[in-house]
Amino acid sequence: MELPAIAGGKPVRNEKIFYGRQWVTEEDIKAVSDVLSGPYVTCGPKVTEGEQRLCEYTGAKHAVLVNSGTSALHCACLAAGIGEGDEVITTPLTFAASANCVLYCGGTPVFADVDPETYNIDPDSIRQKITSKTKAVIAVDFTGQVVKADEIRAICDEFGLVFIEDAAHSIGSRYKGKPVGSFADMTCFSFHPVKTVTSGEGGAILTNDDEYYKKLVLAHTHGITHDEEMMEDAPHEGGWYYEMISLGYNYRMTDFQAALLMSQMDKIDAFISRRKEIVSRYNEELKDLPGLILQKEIPESDTSRHLYIIRLDLSKLTCTRREFFDAMSAENIQCQIHYVPTYWFPYYRHLGYEKGLCPNAEEIYKGIMSIPLYPMMSDSDVTDVINALKKLTAYYQK
Ligand SMILES: *Cc1c(COP(=O)(O)O)cnc(C)c1O
Predict the structure, then answer these.
(1) How much is the pTM?
(2) Domain 26-265 has CATH 3.40.640.10
(3) What would the pLDDT profile of 351-369 be if each residue is shown by its tens digit?
(4) Domain positions in the chain
């Protein structure tokens, strides 16, 4: 048997590969520098063009570009009217921002458990967590796979809840043929560099609802309006006049970031099809490896995959997850873990959340690992990852 590098063998590759990375080209750089040498660095036409572009891509009626996915979630919670005493149901198997945005508004995140096979929030668990204080659901399309949107929509309609979709992983995915961004009450994207397309930092909220849209616009730019119809003290005094009518933030995206985003959107179809190619190779070559469990896909989701997660079946392996992770690093394949259940973090613990709240999420967390997935990976990079996994699962077989 071939020895893993961690046990003194030769690594599958000499150069380190990471779990994700952006693909920025000369065209992207030119798009940014054109804006930087023009009149508008921020608050110019590129942001508006970028918003139109996202509406075209998703079929949503409105889009608001903001400076991060986290700001997008915060604005969505503000537009949904989340405040003191309100509960919002979300998943613990996500980046902390999915729940933090509720805390920003003075609300209480309530964690529903995930499906043991898809790792997405389980609609039955959402139902169990609803109280008279519940105001919204923030459902995360984990790894890019769309949540059971019809079931969540039905629950939200039955109980009068706002359906917010954290689609940081899932731009370009579809649910029953409908693009992500077109069916939740509000959908939030992130354009952080590890995500499918990047603007450096950036995010967006999409909605079909005119009232949410007005609130989102106010929330992301100081609660200030130039629209006379929205002013309280009109008729106003002159062309310079604007009013601050709610408490908002400065969450604006710059024009050069919007230019980068649009240049990346030119390539999104190519990015996604390359991701899909890599995912099908992984699915094919990893499905029978003993000790590995693969994420289940629901047929309703046509998934633009942001993360590829393997789950170690530790009952069949002689190693711990940490040993396996370190052994992959020694092969020069740098994996990552997505995610530590949010309420396990000290900050949430100090707020009174306890271990055991969501047993499926906690059990899944113990075995998961994200392996490299990004469009710039070459076929031989993909082969290296597969070979490392074959070598390690064989070596650690019970
Ligand atoms: C990345 C991410 C966010 C936050 O996006 P930023 O742009 O980094 O602020 C929110 N939710 C999920 C699920 C994410 O992966």
Answers:
(1) 0.97
(2) yes
(3) 999 999 999 999 999 999 9
(4) 6-21+268-395, 26-265
